[in-house]
UniProtKB/TrEMBL annotation:
GO molecular function: methylenetetrahydrofolate reductase [NAD(P)H] activity; NAD+ kinase activity
Organism lineage: unclassified sequences, metagenomes, ecological metagenomes
Pfam families: NAD_kinase (PF01513), NAD_kinase_C (PF20143)
Protein name (database record): Uncharacterized protein
UniProt keyword Signal, yes or no: no
UniProt-listed GO biological process terms: methionine metabolic process; NAD+ metabolic process; NADP+ biosynthetic process; tetrahydrofolate interconversion
Keyword tags: Kinase, NAD, NADP, Oxidoreductase, Transferase
Keyword Nucleotidyltransferase: no
Organism whose genome encodes this protein: marine sediment metagenome
HAMAP family according to UniProt: NAD_kinase
Amino acid sequence: MDRIGIVVKADDAAQRKADELESWLTKRGIEVIQKKNFPHGRKGLHHNKTFAPSDLFCIFVLGGDGTFLSAVRWIGNQKIPVIGVKFGETGFLAETAENDLFTVTELILNRKFSIEPRMRLLVKVIRGETERASETVLNDVVVNKGALARLAYIKTYLDDYNLTTYRADGLIVATPTGSTAYSLAAGGPIIHPAVPGIVMTPICPFTLTNRPLIVPDSVTITIRLAKKIEAGADFIQTQAVYDLVRFGEAIKRAEDMGLCEKTAILPGIIVPRSAGMLKYMNANVPGIEVPDEMIDRMKSAADPKAEGIKIVLELIEGVKAMSGIKGVHLQAIECEQILPQVIEDAGLLPRPKI
């Protein structure tokens, strides 16, 4: 037992106590690895793809439940005990308070403790036949409707059994640990950590029969967003399109399935203002893929604004040539005044009747 980790909330009081704990442990011949947990959006454990050293005896977490969950992500699939010390607003996962920290630490160093295992969820995102992501989570998984105005239609299966289709703003699937988080706020029950169960809690369901449900932890829960056409969608608006080749392949598949005859498909087109904007969307916005040559084109342009408009006109011409397209959803972020001219130059007037 010669290495211990400390994960600390971005808070002055928590940082002072973490430094005090590090000094206390170092005097006893223990090497300390301290990690700072910055708020979401700043570089820190949220964005750090490295994992905690495998030989850590334990990790102290000085913060709230958010900091605790960041520490769990840092651990990954390694079996390293975590001790929560409450410094945040919410402390369901904290085991001790600030005033008892050194008493508890002394007991841990003398091996006078017990370990309480917590179950986690293995989550996979599958599109078509391709697995797009796989993650192990301690708290919960949330499927929601995002920015859509309509309700989400969420088909849910337990193993191979078709359980129900939720009509709601979303669905939370939570472990016993996660049952005290978002699920609780949405009206779900609290599950004792020793209970081998999973709670499924709909978010603002549009029916009295869609209530929270607890199922065994042995089942595989499959969640599928019901087809928008089956749900009565008048049109389908896509994410912003910059790669005409890939988008054309997707439209061809939609045509082969007969989808283009049943509803209107409107590709999203956002006027790029700079190479940086394209790089940001390519890296951070799910579903948007920007070809490298387009980014390079914007980067080398003498007038990025004019080049962005030229790119948009080319994209509009490209999608207009696709037989399954009924229109476009054109956007110009923080430069909306250029839209009338773009619409006229693209030959989008008069508006088609569909």
